[in-house]
Every structure is written in C-alpha cells, then in structure tokens.
Amino acid sequence: xxxxxxxxxxxxxxxxxxxxxxxxxxxxxxxxxxxxxxxxxxxxxxxxxxxxxxxxxxxxxxxxxxxxxxxxxxxxxxxxxxxxxxxxxxxxxxxxxxxxxxxxxxxxxxxx
Amino acid sequence: xxxxxxxxxxxxxxxxxxxxxxxxxxxxxxxxxxxxxxxxxxxxxxxxxxxxxxxxxxxxxxxxxxxxxxxxxxxxxxxxxxxxxxxxxxxxxxxxxxxxxxxxxxxxxxxxx
Lengths: 112, 113
Known about the structure:
The structure holds two protein chains of two kinds. Chain A is 0% helix and 50% strand. Chain A has strands at residues 5-7, 10-13, 19-24, 31-37, 44-50, 53-57, 65-68, 75-79, 88-95, 102-103, 107-111. In chain A, strands 2, 4, 5, 6, 9, 10 and 11 form a seven-stranded mixed beta sheet that branches. In chain A, strands 1-3-8-7 form a four-stranded antiparallel beta sheet, with no helix packed on it. In chain A, a hairpin with a 6-residue loop joins strand 4 and strand 5 (44-50). The mean pLDDT of chain A is 92. In chain B, a hairpin with a 6-residue loop joins strand 4 (32-38) and strand 5 (45-51). Chain B is mostly beta strands. The A-B interface holds A 4, 6, 31, 33, 40-45, 48, 50, 55-56, 58, 91, 93, 98-106, 108 and B 4, 6, 32, 34, 36, 41-46, 49, 51, 89, 91, 93, 95, 98-106.
C-alpha cells in the first residue's frame, strides 16, 4: 500500500490524558499536512511541514498541540491534556506540489 | 470566516441522471480548486481539480466548471451511479498564500438506484 497511512484509526481517551498520532506519508512526498474534521464540517487546516520544517501553523493549533516530522518522513501529532472539544477526526495528507493533497484514512479521537 | 461554501448539505439524484454539486468562494486569491469525495470513516479521496487559468476540466464521468467572475465552481457527474453516493467536499488553495487547502462543509450525494 503506497498511500498515506495513519495510526491508530481510532483512539478513545479520558479527558486530561495525552495522545499521540502517527502519519506515514507517500514516500516521495515532501509536503505533509495535518487537518481536523468535526461533524458536519469540512477538514480544517492545522499545520504544514515541508520536509522536516514546520512552515505553517493554524491558530486552531493551541499550545496543547504539537507536531513533529523529525527526519522529513513520518510525522506525529501530540495532544496534551485532552479536552472533550478535541474529539474529532484527525487527518494527515501529503503532496509533492502545492496542488492536490492525498489524505490518509484519519484517526478518530473520542475524549470521554 | 468560511472562505469556501457549499450551500447544499444534501442532494438526491436518480441513477443515470446528472448530479450537479455547487461551490462558492470568497477569496479572489484562490487559484486552484479541487473536489474530494469522502465515504464514512475514511479520509477524503481526491477526485478532480482545476486551475484558475481554465474554465473546465473533464475526467471520465466527472467535469468541473469554474466561473471566476462569479467565484463559483460546480462538479457534474454524468451518469450518476449508486457508488457515487458519498460526501463531496470542494476545496481551494492559493499558490501565493498559505500552504493549505480551504474546504467547504460538504454536500452529501445520494444516488438512488
């Protein structure tokens, strides 16, 4: 499978716990994005990496959120001290150019 | 501030007929537009795109039309098939702007056999 891979697919966590998600992009893609999607909404941009450099961060990305792409390959998104409002589908996408991004299947986070 | 709008949350079409999904945008800096298709519990799948230098792009049963003066684009699916039933998202980006896609809220298409 040469598509974007995300792990885990589902995560249920208690409020206040930390969670970490992983994204493996398409291997030749140097651009990597994280999006968040809540019910009834389209995906909302969180952050963007070009290789290992984090070049864009949305104001949606509060101090509790941190993303890394240490070697310019896979990326992780960590949420500290989760809140119920963090419950959403977290989508990772990758691309070669600034046009069309290819999405993974997402990680559905439920904070109880 | 919703820069990309899909004002129809749902659309039902008979199999074999044409499906027309609409999208409006407000940011005149957008110069690339995409349509994604999304099934439940999956990520969006890229469907078709169009650059602002064109007004039409066709790929099999899917055609996207762009009207820059009206800041409007549409996706036509002909003929519609039951497997096309999904949520369709319109997205827009700018080469000179932020490196991200702005998405609409989606239109749920149901193709009735």
